[in-house]
Design brief:
Length: 163
């Protein structure tokens, strides 16, 4: 038990970085597979893996689906401007962004716009309907400007891990 407590007190190290790097590329890897790559026993690897989850280094596991194969062929980046001075509308807007399945990502940003959102849709018509009938009608939204993605060059959630 003392060894377990001691392990939980360890800081993030090179072995943890290797575990995280492997998991970023192979989220379904077993602890045995990870252990072979990082040269630990399966039990040691399991303890480290669990500690990384508990300490918040690993937020969640997800499967990346092929959007075009599912009929979602249009990706757009939408810049949203909000009316000034409407704090209640900002809270409502954030809540609605979380609940809209077309919105893959939403960021509060500096500059000429208040938010940038990444949206996926079936086609340009459904994107237009989303923008005009749903997004622009949200409380506090004063304007939107969209950019349609022509080609995906790089899209990843893998973080560059410090060495």
């Amino acid at each position: 038990m003392h060894q377990e407590t001691k392990l939980h007190e360890l800081e993030y190290d090179q072995t943890d970085r290797k575990i995280l790097a492997y998991l970023q590329e192979r989220g379904r890897a077993t602890n045995l597979e990870i252990a072979e790559v990082v040269h630990l026993s399966a039990a040691q690897c399991h303890r480290r893996h669990r500690r990384l989850e508990e300490q918040g280094y690993i937020l969640r596991y997800e499967t990346r689906l092929n959007a075009p194969m599912l009929g979602l062929g249009v990706v757009a980046f939408v810049h949203v401007s909000m009316e000034r001075g409407h704090l209640r509308d900002l809270l409502k807007f954030k809540s609605l962004m979380v609940d809209m399945p077309e919105v893959l990502e939403c960021y509060s940003v500096t500059g000429d716009f208040d938010y940038v959102i990444k949206v996926v849709s079936q086609d340009l018509k459904s994107l237009s309907e989303f923008l005009l009938d749903r997004l622009m009608r949200l409380p506090g939204v004063s304007g939107v400007k969209s950019t349609v993605c022509l080609d995906e060059i790089k899209c990843t959630n893998s973080l560059p891990l410090p060495r």
